[in-house]
Amino acid sequence: MTGTTAATSEPGKAASLPLWPAPYAKGPLDATVTVPGSKSLTNRFLVLAALADGPSRLRAPLHSRDSALMIQALRQLGATVTEVPGDGDYGPDLEITPLDPSASSSTTSIDCGLAGTVMRFVPPLAALRSGATVFDGDPHARNRPMGTIIEALLALGVPVAAEGGRTPSALPFTVEGTGEVRGGHLVIDASASSQFVSALLLVGARFTEGLHLEHVGKPVPSLDHITMTVEVLRSVGVTVDDSVPNHWRVSPGTIKAFDQRIEQDLSNAGPFLAAALATRGTVRIPNWPAGTTQVGDMWRSILAAMGATVSLHDGTLTVTGGASIKGADFDETSELAPTVAALCALATGPSRLTGIAHLRGHETDRLAALVAEINRLGGDAEETADGLVIRPATLHGGVVHSYADHRMATAGAILGLAVQGVQVEDIATTSKTMPEFPDMWARMLETAATDGTSN
Ligand SMILES: O=C(O)C1=C[C@@H](OP(=O)(O)O)[C@@H](O)[C@H](O)C1
Ligand SMILES: C=C(OP(=O)(O)O)C(=O)O
Predict the structure, then answer these.
(1) Of 163, 204, 55, 177, which is closest to residue 105 (Cα–Cα)?
(2) pLDDT at 6 (0 to 100)
(3) How far does residue 400's CA lie from ligand 2's centre (Å)?
(4) Domain at 39-261, CATH class
(5) What does the pLDDT read at residue 103?
(6) Which ligand is nearest to the CA of 366?
(7) ipTM of this model?
(8) Nearest CA to ligand 2 atom 4
(9) What are the boundaries of each domain within the chain?
(10) Which parts of 188-314 fold into alpha helices (H)?
(11) Ligand 2 pocket by C-beta < 6 Å: which residues?
(12) Contacts with 443 (C-beta within 8 Å, 6 or more apart), sequence order
């Protein structure tokens, strides 16, 4: 199991982080890659297993820092999570015995790391047990938007306090669980993160009156992730009505124990698929789900718009890069945006990414980080109010800082395929969702043809 130590990676602040020489592709790749399990599905099903009416099993789940933090949090709240042999390529299955909300327990301190799913999904769960739960995380976690979850719990009658009894607006804070939450109609502003909606929906069935959640404010981002939450809830027998935009009604009731196989992480498939475009090669991903709520299914249209040939046959997605990478305009790419931006920086035409203002509240301010790192290599990227403009430029080698952000690190790796002399700082930060990344990348690079010219 991956450890939970993280580095803080801000240029100039932590100069001693190791540099990873990003492999440069000497020719087109011809690789087949399978990716570890979805972070978003793994952590949703873990939460639901902890609330279910009996023991559950997760098959081929993700094993990474974010899932380890979720497992640790659930154990601290009283669930039992056991690793058992499975048939996944990336680690054991998990068996989960739910927590007993009626068992009162002593104060416990939960480390959220930098995991949005842990810092947003677990506090409402802690409200359902009797006892105090303290939440904190990595240094940057204290900058991530949390106010909506705190205000939601307070509105539901659950005390949440910071040191000295202050009402907090961010981590760290303590949730004083009462063992029971009445629920009912709750109005929130979820414009900073879809995870606020998902967090409350995941536990809503266990509120005495269920939950009628209403969003008021600027549009909720990453709507695909809310669709995922709704579908996952329905799969375990929870009734959710999402027929009215910005309203979600979760009926009170039982969460059925389950035996669930986790799809591979299609967002994390992105850097490997992007490698096909960056090297004018071919990358295949078997077991691509025929139907999915994962936002990563958008790779099929995104990469085609950038000039790749994309096909899905017999469950294998095949992407072949074109003669050059085309610039394009993309709206609402959510967590895919750093990978898209790396490809845009290698494109022959301009690109505009819109609808991603909330990325400023992700693992780092991703808009600022992408502009800084693309331009550091000689690129031409600019921040807009809600996204990025990236124009063609000739890139050169240099250091890509990763800001403790797994997707900044993988974006650096993509740039390094096509630009000689790129070094990525702290590649180990990919352990947030894909500890195997450096090995998988090296294996993929072994397939590079050396008799062709890709760059
Ligand atoms: O619920 C989830 O699993 C996620 C929701 C999204 O969060 P935001 O709505 O904050 O973008 C996404 O970016 C994140 O990587 C995972
Ligand atoms: C935004 C992300 O993560 P988190 O779940 O920590 O919000 C991400 O993985 O891109």
Answers:
(1) 177
(2) 38
(3) 20
(4) alpha beta
(5) 75
(6) 2
(7) 0.99
(8) 116
(9) 19-36+264-445, 39-261
(10) 195-204, 223-235, 266-279, 299-305
(11) 115-117, 335, 362-363, 407, 433
(12) 31
CA of 365 to the centre of ligand 2 (A): 12
Tokens 């050169």 locate to 396
- 335 is annotated as an active-site residue: yes
Q: Which of these, 7, 67, 5, lies nearest to 36 by C-alpha position? A: 67
Quickly name the fold that domain 19-36+264-445 has: UDP-n-acetylglucosamine1-carboxyvinyl-transferase; Chain (3.65.10)
Amino acid (1-letter code) at residue 17: L
- Best residue for ligand 1 mutational test, from 122, 222, 267, 294 (most atoms within 8 Å of Cβ): 222
- The torsion defined by the Cα of 187, 192, 193 and 199, in degrees rounded to 10, comes to -40
Q: Which of 335, 363, 373, 436 is catalytic?
A: 335
CA 259 centroid distance within chain: 23
Closest approach atom of ligand 1 to CA 359: 11
- For residue 366, the cross-strand partners are none
10-residue mean pLDDT series, the chain (455 residues)? 40 72 97 98 98 98 98 96 96 96 83 98 96 97 98 98 95 95 98 98 98 97 97 98 98 98 98 98 97 98 98 98 97 98 98 98 98 98 98 98 98 98 98 98 91 43
> What is the number of the ligand 2 atom nearest to the C-alpha of 193?
7
CA of 114 to the centre of ligand 2 (A): 8
Residue-level pLDDT at 13: 52
* Contact yes or no for 309/322 (Cβ under 8 A): yes
Distance 209 CA to ligand 2 centre (A): 31
